[in-house]
């Protein structure tokens, strides 16, 4: 009797076509997608199915359900994490012997395991930028009460976000959601992160994948201090004299600058009203991406959004439209600058990077060649130069990024109007 069972919020019958009667380690090459993977305890494989790439992890039934539930809850809390697809149980091999259950998640498009980041760009500051991204993710998880239990570079995926990276949680197996975390729980998580990161970097160094200038201990310590700084900025109490009220606005500006919106801020005064204390109560990541989305319908990561908003600002100034309706101007900027720029990149090269990342790199390139030429190089000229001199020579990230040829129409995302928030999360981080 067939007893294979698929548990999923959005069941896809194509899942039934996969060779569930075979142990995952022995799946035939023709169903697998050869994409880079991080280090794992369990057998993990990627498969192409119906134009999607899925990640499959063989794991005990109880753990699979637990991780599936946690991933679902994290997505509801708008935490950047891999999207859970379902759990497959009741697997039997051809002799009727039971096989382990499987957790299925969507492969995170444009994501890079940290080893791929290192093997691509050995810039000495790369490690520091990964750590910054991981610190932001860890703070966001702790703000919603998630104790990770096994923070590490292997359990995180990275996506380019302008000059930075954005970190996504990939392995929730050891995690736990609480109403709130104690200081001790947070410290334990941070401490484990430090230990794991130092170990992972030492592994890379042993494999000669790490620049010799990278100091593993200093990077582990940097995570701890970045985390502490960010946590304090987001949750710390600040007090000042009642004649210094501007400091309320200054605090909000500072949080916006860190990429967070303030959902709720408590303000208290002492009995005689001479001292004011403020403390953010609710903060939400994605300040810039939310603003850009409201203005243009473009759904991109936060630092990319910041970059695009700056370009929009210069467009407003250059066209002298400070008095116009911001949404109208943003629409014109998108029509006249952003979209034509992306479209000017030949299709086969376009899929190497997300559109917003392309635009960001073109802006960088324009700055660079304008300086060399001693004049303001216009966007179309800069784009052509970028395509010829930079993009063409980049390693073909298609393979690394996991966008199979012809399966991802980037135009759809460039075109997304204000009413067409993408259903999938390929270009969605934190709104
Ligand atoms: N949905 C996914 N998208 C991209 N990569 C994934 C996905 N799921 C797993 N991986 C890759 O597989 C590796 C191992 O997955 P993980 O869940 O950490 O397994 P384990 O529990 O055995 O440690 C990750 O480091 C990551 O590189
Ligand atoms: Mg793992």
UniProtKB/TrEMBL annotation:
The terms under GO molecular function for this entry are: kinase activity
Q: Residue ranges of the DUF4032 domain?
A: 229-391
Write down the superkingdom of origin: Bacteria
Q: Which keywords belong to this entry?
A: Kinase, Transferase
Instruction: Region Disordered: list its residue ranges.
Output: 397-431
Q: Name one Pfam family in it.
A: Kdo
Q: What name does this protein carry?
A: Lipopolysaccharide kinase (Kdo/WaaP) family protein
Species this protein is from = Krasilnikoviella flava
């Amino acid at each position: 009797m067939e007893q294979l069972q698929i548990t999923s919020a959005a069941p896809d019958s194509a899942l039934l076509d996969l060779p569930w009667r075979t142990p995952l380690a022995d799946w035939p090459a023709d169903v697998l997608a050869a994409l880079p993977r991080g280090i794992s305890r369990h057998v993990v494989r990627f498969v192409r199915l119906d134009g999607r790439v899925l990640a499959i992890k063989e794991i005990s039934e109880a753990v699979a359900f637990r991780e599936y539930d946690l991933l679902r809850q994290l997505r509801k809390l708008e935490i950047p994490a891999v999207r859970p697809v379902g759990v497959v149980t009741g697997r039997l091999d051809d002799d009727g012997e039971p096989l382990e259950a499987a957790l299925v998640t969507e492969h995170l498009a444009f994501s890079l395991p940290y080893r791929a980041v290192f093997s691509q760009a050995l810039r000495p500051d790369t490690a520091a930028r990964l750590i910054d991204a991981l610190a932001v993710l860890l703070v966001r998880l702790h703000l919603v009460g998630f104790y990770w239990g096994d923070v590490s570079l292997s359990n995180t995926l990275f996506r380019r976000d302008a000059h930075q990276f954005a970190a996504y949680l990939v392995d929730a197996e050891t995690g736990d959601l609480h109403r709130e975390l104690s200081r001790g729980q947070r410290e334990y998580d941070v401490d484990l992160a430090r230990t794991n990161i130092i170990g992972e970097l030492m592994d890379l160094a042993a494999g000669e994948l790490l620049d010799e200038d990278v100091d593993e201990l200093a990077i582990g310590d940097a995570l701890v201090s970045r985390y502490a700084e960010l946590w304090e900025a987001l949750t710390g109490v600040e007090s000042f004299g009642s004649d210094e009220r501007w400091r309320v606005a200054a605090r909000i500006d500072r949080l916006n600058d860190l990429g967070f919106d303030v959902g709720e801020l408590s303000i208290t005064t002492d009995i005689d009203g001479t001292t004011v204390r403020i403390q953010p109560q609710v903060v939400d990541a994605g300040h810039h991406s939310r603003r850009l989305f409201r203005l243009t319908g473009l759904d991109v990561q936060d630092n990319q959004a910041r970059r695009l908003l700056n370009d929009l600002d210069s467009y407003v100034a250059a066209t002298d439209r400070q008095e116009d309706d911001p949404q109208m101007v943003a629409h014109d900027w998108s029509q006249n600058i952003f979209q034509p720029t992306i479209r000017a990149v030949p299709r086969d090269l376009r899929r190497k990077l997300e559109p917003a990342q392309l635009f960001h790199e073109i802006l960088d390139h324009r700055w660079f060649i304008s300086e060399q030429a001693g004049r303001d190089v216009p966007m179309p000229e800069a784009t052509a130069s970028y395509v010829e001199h930079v993009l063409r020579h980049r390693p073909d990230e298609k393979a690394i990024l996991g966008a199979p040829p012809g399966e991802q129409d980037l135009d759809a995302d460039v075109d997304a109007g204000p009413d067409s928030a993408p259903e999938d999360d390929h270009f969605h981080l934190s709104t």
